[in-house]
Amino acid sequence: MNTAPFLSVSGLSVSYGQIRALRDISLNVFSGEIVAVLGANGAGKSTLMKAITGLVTPTKGEIELDGRSIRRVPTYQRPGIGVALVPEGRKLFAPLTVEQNLRLGAFSLGRSASRRLVGERLAEVLETFPVLADRLHALAGELSGGQQQMLAIGRALMSKPQLLLLDEPSLGLAPRIVEDLFVTLLALNERRSLSVLISEQNIREALAVADRAYVVQLGKVVIEEDADVLFDRSDIEDVYMGRRKDLAD
Amino acid sequence: MVSFVEVVIAAASFGAAFALLALSINVIYSTSTVLNFAQGEFMMLGGMLGWALYSAMGLPYWLAVVLIAGGMGLVGLAEYVLVVRPLLLRRAADIAIMIATFGAAYVIRTATALGMGRVERPAKPPLGQTPFVIGGVPILPQSFVVIGITCAVLILAWWLYSRTTLGLALRAAAFDPDGAQLVGINVDRLNALTFAGGGLLAGIAGLLISPLSYASPWFGITFAISGFAAAIIGGLGSWPGAVVGGIILGLANALMLRYVSGQWGTFATFILILLVLYIRPTGIFGERNAAKFGTV
Fold first, then answer.
1. Residues 6+ away with beta carbon under 8 Å from A37
2. Taking CB atoms and an 8 Å cutoff, what residues of chain B touch A118?
3. pTM of this prediction?
4. Third-level CATH fold of A1-82+161-249
């Protein structure tokens, strides 16, 4: 593991009008790590993901990728520098086909990207998610929830990111499908040394694959810990549900 | 019977021009979700420039077409940069942006009237006034020009939206702007492009229709009403809808004009909109079919 983090978020605050969604959040993802951000609904997980991808503008703080500030890099340029988000609710292009969705995932490679390169990426993604290969010409909106999540991850992988962000990927999926999803993530992480930042409500599953975890409550980081240590803590559910108010203050 | 066929052909010509305008409205709306009420003025300005460049100054027709296409593209782009974009960046409400486009329409109308005169201008048709007679029915050559160019534009638009990466990006941005930015699509630039395209298409529609009516700085409002009516009847955002809406509107207008009276044309238009929306609130090809046809 490198000494300098690949992604470094420091002192980040985001407000929606009067509501302070993130308050002075700092976290790191080192190269090749899987880091989980845990927290209840409204804790600020999605806002954090949106800030890292530029969909919301921080009021304060810094976001650095590989030592360089990306705060002023517009959202559409971030996949080009190695950051891809699998957003909450997937945000697939429902009226387009599976193949069109995947090809758009390589949009950031630009016009200079050869057909062969895009073809290679496509083949890699289809190898990771063989189910999608059978449904290339189906509309994304016609897929099952599990397939849609695979497509969303596949689309993000098309730009060959160094850092994959996943915002609540298990939301609305059956437990067995969630399990498959996490196994796939582990494999991707190992095979391609892909760094992963994942936000989850499904804490046990997330902790089982993560190296480290941050617990977020009311827009603040309340715990930062190795995943296996946190996994063994008996009060983790309480912290996560916000029942232990003492930690938030 | 012959006069009925004549009316139908006149209707098809007007319908084709309205379809082109409805298409230009959809091009902008479906990517940026802005309803641009200046589109009618774009069409008016296209007609006025056509009169000025071709009829008054005597430039070759092809050159007039190229200049109007380029010039109206720039007018559309200017509206985006000066009026729409600043509001989009401040996350203004859709209704605020719509009202701002009314303002842009007013500016274009007034500037045209001041700069080019307040009177109606007779625009010269490029293929002359002598009608072809087919099966006893006299048909103005301009009808062929309007219908032909509209068909060509539709084929081009279909190819662009369904066969090119740019088209895919436009459809993706239309469906989910955030999702589009996340895969690397510069949605701001696409919006600018659609305003330029919308200006170009509406300008060409104006150029085409002016020899069949007149060119006048005051026609923009009527055009806007007809174009939006066509787009709404067909289903906002759908381009088969734009064509069908344009033709229905052209027919209703021409039939009322021929058999009842001119004033009833606009009346019929609104009754038609109400009837269609009453039966299908999303228009003929709206929403439900949008996925199947692709949303343009």
1. A27, A45, A48, A197, A198, A199, A200, A213, A214, A216
2. none
3. 0.87
4. Rossmann fold (3.40.50)
